[in-house]
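Me: Here is a favour to ask of a fellow structure person. Could you put it straight underneath, so I can go through it closely?

Assistant:
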Amino acid sequence: MDNIWTTTLLQAGALFAQEQSTILHFGNPVAELEAARNGNIFSDLAQYRLVRFSGEDAQQFLSNLLSSDVRKLQIGECQYSTFSTPKGRMLASMLLVRTATDYLLLMPADIAGPIQRKLSMYILRSKVKASPQSTDEILLGIAGTGATQALADQFGVQTDSNMQAKIVDETILISLDQQCWIVLTSPENATAMYGKLKSHSFVAAGSNAWNWRWIQRGFAWIYNETQEQFVAQMANMECLGAVSFSKGCYPGQEIVARTQYLGKLKRRMSLVHIDTDLNNAKRGTSLYSRELPGQAIGMIADVASAPDGGVDALAVVQSSCWAHGVALGSEAGPQLHAKPLPYAIVDPQ
């Protein structure tokens, strides 16, 4: 639906993808990537959608279905979580935000509708209502060393805490850390924010620049291409607080617990660089190694063009294969080069 925010984006030079929702870039994707790495960026996040759960049973309802301990989430707090099949394979990874009235589940737009319908199948007689993000709600991303101060200047909100949400009038400000915020607001407020952030040298950035910066966080969204491909620990979800091993049952809990306490985790997710482009490196692309000829030993979970050329990606790889080299698409394909993750990985014992 056209609104003042769509008009603002078009006037700023936004080039939309064919589906006319996600912004590819604003005319200079190279400069946008450099700003994502060393400056401050402001992005429309139409590639994500929110699903809202409300009602007096919402907390217990979500706790029975998601891998994180929703009961520990206080008003104004956030946590990562996952939703899996009974076999423990992830159908969705998400950012869960609790407000005074709702639980907001943020996930990629391509799975948000199906996941809402899937979760809603369990409502039955529970006093829970599920609803999608409305057309009058805009998701924005603000990132960089100046992000927290810029939002403080505009909204009068100060926070030194991560994974917190502040509500100012009709705007929700979600602090993932001091350099990365997600904002839910109206088209009118989004337009006003854009004007003020632009005056503070924030660069309008398309989806690739934002995705590249997100990939550096080491959190893998689940997309259509990667649904049912990974157990939570393969994607390091327990390292990010998305899995509780002390709560009650939820779909896939037995497999996740068995992997943690009884099994050996053969595959783990790494942050990698590959000297190729997005025509060859796509979500869901299989990975190979000469250690196991002809056998796929991993998969690309997420990928974006990188500032210095090539792509950066999150890749789930059979750990034993790193010593023999890991390649994209075939054993003769471009090699994956591991980069440091921003968190420690402690493998199950």
Q: What stands out?
A: The longest strand covers residues 90-98. The helical segments are 4-11, 29-38, 58-63, 109-120, 147-155, 187-199, 207-215, 253-261. The two ends are 52 Å apart (CA to CA). Residues 187-199 form the longest helix (13 residues).
